[in-house]
Every structure is written in C-alpha cells, then in structure tokens.
Amino acid sequence: MSIGEKLNGVAGDPADGIVSREIFSSETLFAQELERVFAPAWAFVGHTSQLPNDGDFALSRVGQESVIVVREKGGAVGVLLNSCRHRGMPVCRYDDGNTSVFTCSYHGWSYDLAGSLTGLPKFNEGYRGGLDRSQWGLVKARTAVFYGSIWATFDPAAPSFEEYLGDMALYLRDLLQGPDGEDDGYEVIGGIVKWKMPSNWKFGAENFSGDHSHYPTHLSVNRLNISLSGKAERHPFAAVKAPFTFLNVAHPGGHTVRVNLYDQLSPYESMWAAIPEVDAYYRQCHEARQKRLGDRARLFSRGGIVFPNMHYNTGGRTTIGIWIPLSAHETEVWRWLFVPRNAPQIVKDTLRHFYMRYAGPSGMTEQDDMENWTAAQRGTSGTWSRRYPFNYQLSPDDAHRAWPEPWLGQDAMVVAGVSEHNQRAFYTRWNELMSA
Q1: What end-to-end distance do the CA atoms of the chain give, in Å?
Q2: Would you please indicate which residues are annotated as catalytic (active-site) residues?
Q3: Each residue's pLDDT tens digit, 217-252
Q4: For the residues 145-158, what does the mean pLDDT come to?
Q5: 281 phi-psi bin (left φ>0, alpha ψ -120 to 50, beta other)
Q6: Which of 234, 252, 272, 345 could make a disulfide contact with 279, Cβ separation 3.0–4.6 Å?
Q7: Bridge partners of 250?
Q8: Strand residues in 288-433 grouped as ranges (E)
C-alpha cells in the first residue's frame, strides 16, 4: 500500500504535498516499512572513535535489530547481529567494552571478534564432531567506513554504500570534517543518549530533513540566550550575519540537507562570545577551513537526513542520531555527540554542556520538538482526524530556481528559501519503496 492509494477513503500524493495521516498510525503499514524501507537500507551504527583498540565493541541498532560494532584483530571494523545462532539470545549485553570473545549466557555458544563460532558445549559427544562451525557463526553485515562514520546493511542485494549515498557524499563528508575542515576531525564524547517517545519515527525524520517554519515552537528558548553567542538565540551561528541563501537540497535516494550558502568567503564573526577561549579556537578554525576548502567553505551545513532514519545537526552542536522504529506509535532515539578531536578541553566541555541544555530528553529545544511530535501522533489516531490528510505544499518546487554551483550535487534538486520541498522528497522516496 502506498501514500497514493486510498487509505480510509483519503488519497495522498507526496509530489503534490498531500500525505495521508494513515502512514503514521497504521500498524499494517509499519510492518511493511520494516521490510521495504529499513531492511534494504544502509544504517548508521557508530563511529570509529568509539573503537580505538582491537577488541573494542559498542552495541548499536540496524532498524529494530541489536548489532555489535566491533574492532576485529588487525583493525578491521565489523558489524554482527547480536543474536546467537542456537536460540537467538543476545551474545553481548554490555553497551560497550573490550573483549576477545562473545559468549551466549543460555547454552554457552561462543564467537570470536569476526563472528566465527569457536566453541560450544558437548561438541564431540553431543554433535559427534559433525557440526560445521563455519555455517553457524553470527550473521555478519556488509560494512562501510566513511570518514570515521560506520554503516551497515544485512541486505546482500543493496547497492554499495557509495552508490547508496550518491551526491549526498559531499554533505556527509562535510558533516564529518572538523571545524577547521579536516577530514574525520571529530570524536564521540561520552555515552549515547537514548530515550523513547510515543511518536512515529517519520515525524522526527521529516523535522530534521527540512522543517524551518516551526519558529513559534522555540520562542521561549530563543529568549534565554542558551547559545553563548551573545545573542538572544538558541543557535551559536545566530551571530554570523554575512549574507547567505538558505538552501534545501534533496537527493533521489531520499537524503535531504539544509544548508546556508554564503555569498562569499567572509571574516569570522563571534559564535561563542561568552567564552573567549572557545571563541578564539573557532576563529582559528574558521580561517583554517577557508584555506583548506577554498570556495566550498561558503557551504555551512545545518542538518539533514541520510534516508531513512539517520539524522544530524550542526551549527555548534554536531550530533548524529537514529530514529529506531518500535511501532507505528513509538520510537526510540539514539544520539551521538561529537566534539573536535584535537580541540582544547575547554572547547569539548563547553560543547558537552551546550548539548545538555539544547538537545535530547533534557534539552530545552528538543523538549519543544518532542511535544510537537507526540501531540502530532495523537492527531493521527482519532476516528475522524485520521481521515484528513496532512498538507506539505509550502513553497511549491516550481516557485524556485535551481542553484548554479554544480558541486552542490548534479543529481540533487536544490531550491532556495523556506520550503517543504525536502519533506516532499522524503515522502516521495518512502512512497517509491512502499509501492515496489
């Protein structure tokens, strides 16, 4: 069933900006999503800075599946399904750590860092030595490492990660560059922040994909000056006043990005005025980034989605998260916080404190967002309300012109200004997969 089919008597067409509420509340459609949207996708599962040594591991998720992200002997990164081949028990119960073997606590089957079955009780007398261990290792995902980020898919028919990204590779690489423009310039700090909310995963995903018209949501936070920029705003980049155009970038694979494209390379303007040491660090980084990237330093990424459920934010609080689909009405959120790898400790501490004020279940900004998403979910579940579609028609695509810089993406559609173009592109890709 697709958005374009009749759902409780209401038609929907994402290309025209009409989306049925049923896709947020139907458990039947949710079950199909797991098979058609999540199973073929490449999933973000972590970052190499979490695994500095051989034997280091961290638990993560691919869709609803628990996986072990592990540094194998010799340094390769592997992703294993955290499910014993004997009875399905998780073979790893710790969030992270270091080990040489994963052992199931139910019947004692054990596996090495590469997932190979290395030991099981009663091998000789019980199986008479006839069990082919090579056929009973942990299920291993296809894995890609992209400038420190780790990705996995269990679908043997999925395209390569490079093909999956397409032109989105430019923006993902930009995200993972340090504030000075150095590739793989970030590291994960602290543990992964995790919480659940009674909302469909797509409400959060569409918000990160391109929603820039929800300013009334954060009016109170903006007045509190939590950004440390010296301005009454919540974003550190609120103090950067050089002329720019706000762009919405949508890729055929459903990936979407929100960026500022500055008219020209410009001098640094204070982003962290409340803490001079931090401000001086970012001033140096600003100048180094312009030297390293040249004209492309005019690009300032604000956030986006790698389809379907990896989301990220920048602008003084570089975070990556995943929306984990639990049901049509419930989502678990995991969020990684990144700090510049080579930054002074005061910079790392400032970013950590800022993140705590800004995002996550205790952050003032995201509390506003979660109130929206959970209330919107209730608005999809009523007998009458669910019959009426949502409107995504803000700024039709034909009202904008394509942007001239070819390096923004040859296959991407780039439109300027506040628009729901990215949301339309997100749901168009969702619809394609659900209709296949």
Answers
A1: 9
A2: 107, 211, 214, 218, 369
A3: 666 666 666 777 766 667 776 556 678 888 889 999
A4: 97
A5: alpha
A6: 272
A7: 256, 413
A8: 299-306, 310-313, 319-327, 330-340, 390-391, 413-416
